[in-house]
Amino acid sequence: MSRLATALLLCATGVFAPARLHAQTSGQSIPPTAANPAPPTHVFIPMAVPKLSPGVLQLLKLEGEFSAAVTTGGGRAFSSWFADDGVTLNNGKPAVLGRTAIAATANWDPAQYQLSWYAEGAQMGPSNDTGFTWGHYDATSIAKDGKSTTLTGRYITFWKKVNGEWKVALDASANEPPPSGGLPTP
Prior knowledge:
The chain is 27% helix and 33% strand. By secondary structure, the protein is an alpha+beta fold.
């Protein structure tokens, strides 16, 4: 598959925003900004896994749309994707229960905090009204002096249909695991 065909497929599945298409197809680099963050290091390419079901493709597309909305809209966009009874679980923090509570804690501005992620896989439930995605996230805080700190980790998102519309039922994240072959420190 050509680089252009791959990039177009990634745009169609929500993995890349069209603004980054040129950089991905030409090999040229576009400096990252809040409006055009650096592309992820690893990219899930559905064509690399030839037999993805329509349900899995649908979940991957949803996850891409969710990530793109949060990249530009920050915490407000993040909380808007949750079901009323949604839950967030973050490493070392208590569970946040319900979309109202999630909205109260997810109050970041994308100019000071960038959260982006990409799916590495998905599974649709047997009734096609629930499923989950998982992958990698990057969370970058930008201090007032302009310096940034990036944390990386793994996530899982559980999806469910509510009145015919897909909503996030649970979003959980944890710190990135140690490099391959490494052992966690106690």
